[in-house]
TrEMBL record:
Keywords: Cell membrane, Membrane, Transmembrane, Transmembrane helix, Transport. It comes from Actinoplanes siamensis. The chain crosses the membrane at residues 7-29, 49-66, 73-92, 98-119, 131-153, 159-181, 193-211, 231-248, 269-292, 304-326, 338-360, 366-385, 406-423, 480-501. Belongs to the major facilitator superfamily. EmrB family. Pfam families: MFS_1. One of its GO terms (molecular function) is transmembrane transporter activity. This is MFS transporter. The lineage of its organism: Bacteria, Bacillati, Actinomycetota, Actinomycetes, Micromonosporales.
């Protein structure tokens, strides 16, 4: 196998590692709480600190990659990710674990945009489309297997191995990239420090607001005391900081984000499509395990395994795209993938309306969804970066990665808010039939919603509250059905947005 394909293996493993660490924590959190004795607020920060820092630093490291060389930044990021993973795995307290997750997010931000730069550097024409197919399928597979790995460690070993497994993986990735990826070219200039600070602060505040809106309240605080929500403050601050950032980028000689790149139609319109696609693509994965565990009775490991068809579908689409790369353009793959994803989400919504859904009725839509993700996620990046000059590849990759992450964060915020709002409303509606005193209805609805459905099991075990558990299961199924249909609609909107992207010129099949 040619050297560059071995290099692709190393790059893909690096991307898989940072994506897995986004999803693996969701299923190990109960074990972390029990072992370290942390409270619910600390548990949330263990989950969300990684994503917030990751999104905040993508633009900065995209520019650093252009100046220092993408391979160098990637290798440094891999080493730092290994060190911070070791720190997380050995953390003696919740505070140390949260610190390690913050640092992990920074290291992860060094890997995603540089991985795209390295692919653009090593592959051209038809091979570039194939490389992006591997890259995109890796994201789909990693998203699905993260909960499986976390569930297995939580049930059969220790949550600490969910982080410790990264250490030998880092050694393998380091060896493959150093041995088989060529050193990267560098552009001239310097890092815009004020712009970097404005970017990191603005994107960090925006990510915090999108992720934590449901927890704290979008405008006023949840709870009796009320008051202005920190989420509202963060979103206002983000708007001001990002406006200042754009103003500076248009006036500085060495911009962190070269706004001239948005004059390229494929880059500009492709990033618009990327945000819309992110809205609908992975938000469903954040709430689907709750329905599987608390309505259908799956264990955490079984819930993770139920997502494996997504990974298998991504693998299948990867193989298909290799054979069809000469017949279909990258843009055609994106449109085909989005259509398949939308159909899969509509099917899942129909299945979720049936509380006792058989396993195969979940497997088939998830497989189809995985095929769509393998087509769309990989090739939309190929489309966005196709006409970006090689000297600006790191910056272009950082911008595209930032748009992807913010679209995903916004999608998760929208879909989880709709899901939990539906859950609370439907539980209240089902219990207001006279059998439950009105004074207790709100308490039961709050208990189910605040526990994300975990209260259903103890409610079902008590004959006096078994009816409440039944109402909660029905409400959770309705919530999954609604967000599935919403995700399908968002994906169709993304499909329509791709109509604004110009087709690649025949003479330039993925220009560098």
């Amino acid at each position: 196998m040619p050297r560059k394909w071995w290099g692709l293996v190393g790059i893909a493993l690096g991307v898989a590692m940072i994506v897995v660490d986004t999803t693996i924590v969701n299923v190990i959190t109960p074990a972390v709480i029990e072992d370290l004795g942390i409270n619910s607020s600390q548990a949330q920060w263990v989950q969300e600190s990684y994503a917030i820092v990751f999104a905040a630093l993508l633009l900065v490291f995209g520019r650093v990659a252009d100046l220092a060389g993408a391979r160098r930044v990637f290798v440094v990021g891999v080493v730092l990710f290994g060190v911070t993973s070791l720190l997380a795995g050995l953390a003696p307290s919740g505070g140390v674990l949260i610190l390690a997750r913050f640092l992990q997010g920074g290291a992860g931000a060094m890997l995603l945009p540089t991985s795209l730069s390295l692919l653009n550097q090593a592959f051209h024409g038809k091979e570039r489309g194939q490389a992006y197919a591997v890259w995109g399928s890796t994201i789909g597979v990693a998203t699905a297997i993260g909960p499986v790995i976390g569930g297995w460690f939580a049930e059969h070993a220790s949550w600490r191995w969910a982080f410790g497994i990264n250490v030998p993986l880092v050694v393998l990735i380091f060896g493959l990239v150093v041995a088989f990826v060529a050193p990267s070219s560098r552009s001239t200039g310097r890092v815009d420090v004020p712009g970097s600070l404005l970017s990191a602060a603005g994107l960090g505040a925006l990510a915090f607001g999108l992720v934590e809106g449901r927890t704290y309240g979008w405008v006023t605080r949840h709870g009796a005391d009320g008051g202005l929500s920190p989420v509202f403050v963060a979103l206002v601050a983000a708007a001001i900081l990002l406006a200042l950032f754009v103003w500076r980028q248009r006036r500085t000689r060495h911009p962190l984000m070269d706004t001239r790149l948005f004059r390229i139609p494929s880059f500009r319109n492709g990033n618009v499509a990327t945000v819309i696609i992110g809205l609908g693509e992975f938000g469903i994965v954040a709430v689907l395990p709750l329905w599987l565990q608390f309505t259908l009775g799956y264990s955490s490991l079984q819930a993770g395994i139920a997502l494996l068809p997504l990974a298998i579908g991504s693998f299948v689409s990867n193989g298909i795209s290799f054979g069809m790369a000469g017949n279909l353009s990258a843009l055609s793959f994106v449109r085909l993938g989005l259509a398949l994803e939308a159909v899969a989400m509509a099917c899942l919504g129909a299945v979720a309306a049936v509380t006792a859904a058989p396993w195969w009725s979940i497997t088939l839509p998830m497989f189809l969804y995985g095929v769509g993700v393998g087509f769309a996620t990989a090739q939309v990046t190929n489309v966005v970066l196709a006409d970006v000059p090689a000297t600006e590849a790191g910056q272009g990759s950082g911008i595209q990665s930032t748009f992807r992450q913010l679209g995903s964060a916004l999608g998760i915020a929208v879909l989880t808010t709709v899901f939990f709002s539906t859950l609370r409303h439907d539980v209240k509606d089902a219990l207001r039939d006279g059998r439950i005193p009105d004074g207790r209805v709100d308490g039961f609805a709050a208990a189910v919603t605040d526990s994300a459905g975990a209260a259903i099991t103890p409610l079902a075990a008590n004959p006096a509250t078994a009816g409440v558990a039944d109402a909660a299961r029905g409400a959770m199924a309705n919530g999954i059905a609604l967000v599935s249909y919403l995700a399908a609609g968002l994906l169709l909107a993304g499909l329509l947005a791709t109509l604004l992207i110009p087709a690649a010129r025949p003479a330039e099949p993925a220009a560098v």
